[in-house]
Amino acid sequence: MQKVGGIGQGKAITITAAFELGRRLMEEPSRFDGISITHAAMIYQRILPRLKGLDHEQCWAIYLNRAHFIIDQERLSSGGSATTSFPREALLRRALDKKASFVVLVHNHPSGSPRPGKADIQETAAVREALSSLGISLLDHIIVCDDKFYSFADEKVYLG
User: Fold this and answer.
1) Is 99 left (phi over 0), alpha (psi -120 to 50) or beta?
2) Pick from 156, 152, 149, 151: which is nearest to 51 by CA?
3) What angle do CA 144, 147, 151 make, to 5 degrees?
4) pTM here?
């Protein structure tokens, strides 16, 4: 490149670096995996490796765009053997930051029973209402056990 008039060593290094950055960017996978989430089993299969075999509860959020592509997923909390928190403020802030249109809430039950307890139902309703106030929909809340799951959406549990 230095043979071209007006391009010195510094400029040549800058141009070469820019081409390298562009090449690396093109090699990175898309932030969307190209799969539209259409049912709870897809989320269960995706999150199970993170939750299987845990002896404590964890709460995760999965953020989706308008086409139901996953934008991101993250652990919101880690609790005890029978409870975990559903940190609403953090969830709302992150959903807005990620420009999510939908959120799927996921947590595990180490007990082996995926059935929601009273606290699960109440927290789901509160999260749904909080997200709705921001124009974001809670698409589902999925409770995961090692070999089964419970989906509020599949069970037609509408909470507000």
Assistant:
1) left
2) 149
3) 40
4) 0.75
